[in-house]
Amino acid sequence: MNTTKELTVKESKIAYLLRLADDRLILGQRMSEWCGHGPVLEEDLALANMALDLIGHASSLYAYAAEVEDEGRDEDHFAYFRDDYEFTNLQLCELPKGDFAFTIARQFLFSSFSYFQYQQLKEAKDEQFAGMIDKHFKEIKYHLRHSRDWVLKLGDGTDESKERMQEAFDELWMYTGELFYIDGVDEMMLADGNGADLLSFKEEWKKLVEDTLKEATLNVPDWDQFMMTGSRTGMHTEHLGHMLAQMQFLRRSHPDADWK
Amino acid sequence: METQQQLDDFQARIDAGEKIEPKDWMPERYREQIIRMGSQHAHSEIVGMLPEGNWISRAPSLKRKLVLLAKVQDEAGHGLYLYSAIETLGVRRSELIDQYLYGNAKYSSIFNYPTLSYADVCVIGWLVDGAAIVNQTKLAHSSYGPYARANLRICKEESFHKKQGYEMVAKLAEGTPAQRKMVQSAVDRFWWPTLMMFGPNDSNSPNSAELLKWQVKLNTNDELRQHFVDRVVMEAEAVGLTLPDPDLKFNDETGHWEFGEIPWDEFWDVVKGNGVMNRERMKSRRKAHEDGAWVREAAQAYARKKNLSREKAS
Amino acid sequence: MSENNEKDWPLWEVFYQPKNGKPYEHAGSLHASDAENALQNARDVYARRNEGIGIWVVPSDQITASTPEDMGSFFDPASDKPYRHPQFYSVPRAVKKRS
After folding, report:
1. Measured between alpha carbons, how far is C99 from C89 in angstroms, rounded to an integer?
2. What is the DSSP letter of B113?
3. Domain boundaries in chain C?
4. 3-class DSSP state for residue B230?
5. Which of the listed residues A30, A203, B148, B243 has the most CB atoms within 10 Å of its CB?
6. Are B77 and B83 in contact (CB under 8 A)?
7. Residue A188 CB coordination number (10 Å)
C-alpha cells in the first residue's frame, strides 16, 4: 500500500494500536451477546469473562493510542466516533456470534493467534506498551486453554457437535488468511522494536491449529483455499455496520452528555 | 411420619439460632419451603440478566459497558450459588430449571418490565438492586445453612451493583436535559414495581407465617419495604429526583416515610403472566436452554469417551 | 421430569486457597462435565475477584461426610479432654510476666 508507506512512526504506532484494539473491542462486543444466553450457567460466566477481558484490553489500548496521539481524545473517541471504514479489525472478529460451536472455533483461532503475537509484543521496546501486553497475555493464555478444551469436547463429543464444529471451522477458514496480513504499518513497528513478526510464527500457529483439530477428530480445511482480505485497510463485511450502529447510537445521539 | 417431638426439637434448634444443615432432620414442609423460596430466588437472578443485558451492546461508554457486563455476569453467578444451595436438598438443578421454564415456578415480577432507555438499567441498579440487597442482607441469616451462605456471598459481591447504579443515576440527574428526562422517566416507571418486589402486604402473604416461624426469612414483607422506602426517599432527594407518589410524607411520630397505596392489581396481573415482557422473557430463556442442549450432551459424551479409554489403558 | 439422571453435568465441590500459606476453604459447588471443565468453571465462577491463588475441585459424590447421628460419638468425647489445650496448664508467674 502506497499510502501506508508514507506514515510516520507515530502514525504507524497509532494505526498499530488501533488494529489491536479494534480486534478486541469488536470480538468482545460479539462475545458479550452471549451474556444471559449461554448453554449452561457456568459457561455463561466464562463467556462473559472473556468478553470483559477483550473489551478491557481494547479500552486500555485505545487509551494508549490517545496518549500517543496527544490530541486530548480518549478511548471512547475511538470506540464510539469512528465509522465502519475507519475500523481496522479482522473480519473474523465481526462475524455474527453464530452457535456455540462457531463462537468457540473463532475464539480458538483468534486466541491462538493472539498468543503468539502477544508473546512477541510483550518484549516490545516501549515499556509502557510491553507492560500492558504482558498483563493481557495472561488472560489470552486462559482464553486459549478454554477454547482449545471446548474444540476437543465438541469435536470429539456427539455426532451433532462434531458436525457443528466442523461446519464452524469450514466457514471461518477463509477469514484466517488476514491474520497474517502485513503492510507498512507492521513493517515500521517491527523496525521500531514494537511490532510482532507475524511470519515468524505462522507455521507454528498452523501446526497448533492442525494438531488441535486432529485431536478433536476434525478435518483440517485447505490452507490454500480462497482467503478474504481488506479489513486492515477498512474493508469489512456487512455485519460490522450493523454492529456499530447499535453500539454507537446512544453515545452519538447525545455527544455532549457525560456518560462515564 | 413426623412426630410432634421431632417438630418441637426442630423448632427449638431454630429458636436457639442454630443453622440447619443438609443432612439434619427437617420437616418435609420446611424442605419444600426452602426449595420453593430458594429456587424462585435463583430463577429471578437468571431472568434478571435479560432486562439489563438488553443494554450491554448499547452502553454509552466503554467503562459503562464493562460495569454492566460484569454486573449481569454476577447475576449468573448468584443464580448458580442459589441453585447449588438448593441442590443440597437432593433436588437437581435441571429439575428446578424445568419447573420454571416449563412448569409454574415463579420468579420476581420486576423482570417482566421492559428496559426502554439506558437510564432504566441505572435505575434498576439503584432501586431494584437496592431492594434486593435489603432482602438478601436479611436472608444471609436464614436458618438453612447453605442458603444463608449463598446469600452472604451474594451480598459481598452485590455491594457494587447498587453503587454503580446510584452513581450513574446521580450523573444523569445533573446531566443534559435529555439525560434528566430519561432518568426521571425511568424512576416513574420502576418505583411502584420496585415496591412490589417485597411481596404482598403481610395480611395477604400466605407463606409468610411459616417462613418466619422457621426463620427461613427474618422480617415481614412490609417491614422490609418500609426499611427500603425510608432509605430511598433520602437518596432521591439528594440527587433531585421525584418519586411518583403524591402521598409520600414523613411521619414524625413513627420516624418513617408513609407512602401511597401500591397498585396491587397490576402486581397480580404481572404475576399471572400479563406483564409487558413475561412471554418474551420465558421464550428467551427457553431458547437459551434448548439451544444449549447439544453442548451439554457433547461435553458429557466426551467425558464418557475419555473415561472409557482411561479404563482400557489401565 | 427427573427421569433422565444425566441431564445435569456432575456436581463438584470447589475449594480455594485465599492466600499463600493459608489452608484451602470450601467455596461452593458447580456443575462440570469433567475435571478440566470443573477447574476452569471454578476459576470463572468462584475466583472472579481475586478470591484465591489455588483451586481444588472434587466430585461431590466422592466426599464421605459424617452424619448428624455421628455427632455425639464423634465430637462430644473431645469436650472433656481439657489436657489437650494450653489453658489447662499453669506457668510460673515470673515466666508469664516476661512473655
Report:
1. 15
2. S
3. 6-65
4. helix
5. A30
6. no
7. 21
* Alpha-carbon gap, residue B16 to B43, rounded angstroms: 31
Taking only Cα atoms into account, the Rg of chain B, rounded to an integer number of angstroms, comes to: 21
Query: In whole angstroms, what is the distance from residue A215 CA to residue A236 CA?
Result: 33
pLDDT the model gives residue C1: 34
Please identify, in words, the CATH class of the domain defined by C6-65: alpha beta
pLDDT value at residue A4: 46
Residue in C30, C33, C49 closest to B80 by CB: C30
Q: Which cell is B285 given?
A: 430463556
Q: What is the mean pLDDT of residues B217-246?
A: 96
The CB density around residue A145, as the number of other CB atoms within 10 Å, is 16
Q: Which three cell numbers stand for residue A112?
A: 491462538
3-state secondary structure of C74: helix
Indicate the length of chain B as a whole number: 314
Say if CB A229 and CB A92 are below 8 A apart.
Answer: no
Q: Name chain A contacts of B46, Cβ cutoff 8 Å.
A: 36, 41
Q: Which amino acid is at C84?
A: R
Confidence of residue B207 (pLDDT cuts 50, 70, 90): confident
Q: What is the mean pLDDT of residues B216-225?
A: 93
Chain B residue numbers touching A250 (CB-CB < 8 A): 58-60, 118
Which chain A residues have a beta carbon less than 8 Å from that of C40?
46, 145-146, 149
- Chain C residue with Cα closest to A41: C31
Partners of residue A227 on adjacent β-strands: none
Alpha-carbon span A64 to A128, nearest angstrom: 9
C33, C36, C40 ranked by CB distance to A46: nearest: C40
Which tens digits make up the pLDDT trace of C30-67?
Answer: 999 999 999 999 999 999 888 889 999 999 999 998 88
The ipTM value here is 0.96
Are A42 and C32 within 8 A, CB to CB?
A: yes
The per-residue pLDDT for range B163-195, each reduced to its tens digit, is: 999 999 999 999 999 999 999 999 999 999 999
Q: Look at C30 and B98 and tell me if their CB atoms are within 8 Å.
A: no
User: Across chain A, what does the average pLDDT equal?
Assistant: 96
The answer, for C85 touching chain A at a CB cutoff of 8 Å, is: no
Nearest CA among B312, B129, B137 for reference residue B217:
B137
Which triple of cell numbers denotes residue B74? 454476577
Assess A167–B contact: CB distance below 8 Å, yes or no: no
* Partner residue opposite C40 with nearest CB, options A40, A41, A146: A146
Round to whole Å and give the CA distance between A26 and A120. 23
- Determine which helix (DSSP H) or strand (DSSP E) holds A29, and give its type and residue range: helix A9-32
Query: What is the gyration radius of the CA atoms in chain A, in angstroms?
Result: 18
Contact B209, B151 (CB under 8 A): no
In chain C, which residue ranges form alpha helices assigned H by DSSP?
35-46, 71-75, 93-98
What does the buried/exposed string (b/e) look like for B75-106 if buried means 16 or more CB atoms within 10 Å of the residue's CB? Answer: bbbbbbbbbbbbbbbebbbbbbbbbbeeeebe
Q: Is the pLDDT of residue B118 over 90?
A: yes
* Closest-CA residue to B232 (of B136, B166, B160, B135): B166
Question: What is the per-residue pLDDT for C79?
Answer: 79
pLDDT tens per residue, range A117-136:
999 999 999 999 999 999 99
Alpha-helix runs per DSSP H in chain B:
4-15, 28-47, 49-53, 62-87, 93-101, 118-123, 129-139, 145-173, 177-196, 208-213, 221-238, 264-269, 278-291, 293-313
What was the pLDDT predicted at A5?
52
